[in-house]
Amino acid sequence: MLRINKILLFLLSFWIIIAAFRTFYNFSKLYTEEKDWYMLTSEEKRGKYFGDTHYFLRFLDSSTAKNSSIFFITDDLKSYYLSRYYIYPKKEIYGLHDLIDGRQTLKNYDYIAIYPVSTSLQNQTKDLLDWNKYELSATYSGKNKQTGIIYKK
């Protein structure tokens, strides 16, 4: 019985030493790895984390009217799902893959947003959308040479 108590005491002591070491290690990371993030606003942190996608989606939000429907064309699923987060609840966002997969029917959209702009994305939508109804509304040029275009009906 005494031997079991010594083993349990040793394991408990060892566990406390490891926990204390991890705590000090995590505190040391505050000064080495995370010091650049402390003074940033939440907007700057999102921009640093998501890059040009964050800035384009903020640009899209400010360049479109409230409660408008936006057809968002992208080949980047991260941009698509982030757009649903950034724009919600003011606008409806649908993506090209929703049309191709049949999850969304084609309707008249107030805006068409393309990010990042590529001719292959525009070619995929030539037959799906009536481009004659839309005119260029705004363009976005990002820091990493990513571009975006917004068309308005």
Strand content: 15-25%
Q: How many E-type strands?
A: 5
Please, how many helices?
7
- Termini separation (Å)? 82 Å
Strand order in the sheet with the most strands: 2-1-3-5-4
Pick out the low-confidence regions.
none
Outline type: elongated
Arithmetic mean pLDDT: 84
**Element order, helices and strands?**
HHHHEHEHEHEE
The helix/strand class is alpha/beta
Tally of individual domains:
2
Estimate the helix proportion, in percent.
40-55%
Largest sheet: 5 strands, mixed
Q: Report Rg.
A: 25 Å
Could you characterize the architecture of this molecule?
With about 150 residues, the protein is of the alpha/beta class. The protein has two domains: about 1-40; about 45-150. The chain is about 50% helix and about 15% strand. A five-stranded mixed beta sheet has the order 2-1-3-5-4. Helix 3 (about 40-50) crosses helix 4 and helix 4 crosses helix 5 (about 75-85).
Which terms summarize this structure?
153 residues; alpha/beta; 2 domains; 5-stranded mixed β-sheet; elongated
Architecture blueprint of SSEs:
Layout: H1 2-32, H2 35-38, H3 42-50, H4 52-63, E1 69-73, H5 77-87, E2 92-95, H6 96-100, E3 111-114, H7 119-124, E4 135-141, E5 147-152
Parallel strand pairs: 1-2, 1-3
Antiparallel strand pairs: 3-5, 4-5
